[in-house]
Design a protein that fits this description.
This protein has one domain: Up-down Bundle (Substrate Binding Domain Of Dnak, Chain:A, Domain 2). About 70% of the residues lie in helices and about 5% in strands. The protein is built from four helices and two strands. Helix 2 packs parallel to helix 4 and helix 3 packs antiparallel against helix 4.
Length: about 120
């Protein structure tokens, strides 16, 4: 039976392996860059179109403000991750942001002027 030390050394050796990336992934990386740019721009556009549409000083206003905080945080994270070159996490963050945008619009926290193209509205 292997000792803990033997298992650890095997794990470390595996972690130190280098892998070459096949050339076809260069195109995939370019595609990911374009996807990130597209979705960041789409989220920025969506943010510019929406406004909070609930009564002032209500629980719903607190909820809508919380949604806006989450949206802006995820958009900011996505932009940071894009600049850092972490494209997969960028896509994840920007999709979370848009999920918050769409959810807020769908339940009526945000007024999006009936824009069914950029938002998934209830009616």
């Amino acid at each position: 039976m292997d000792s803990v030390a033997d298992i650890s050394s095997v794990s470390l050796q595996k972690q130190k392996q280098t892998y070459s990336i096949p050339s076809q992934y260069g195109k995939m990386n370019d595609d990911l860059v374009e996807v990130c740019k597209k979705y960041i721009a789409k989220s920025d556009e969506a943010l510019s179109k929406l406004s909070i549409s609930v009564p002032i000083d209500s629980y719903l206003e607190t909820l809508a403000n919380d949604f806006m905080t989450m949206i802006k945080s995820y958009v900011q994270d996505a932009k940071y991750l894009f600049e850092k070159g972490d494209l997969v996490k960028c896509i994840s963050a920007i999709n979370y942001a848009y999920g918050w945008i769409d959810s807020g619009a769908r339940v009526g926290l945000f007024d999006v002027s009936g824009d069914h193209t950029n938002f998934t509205l209830f009616k």
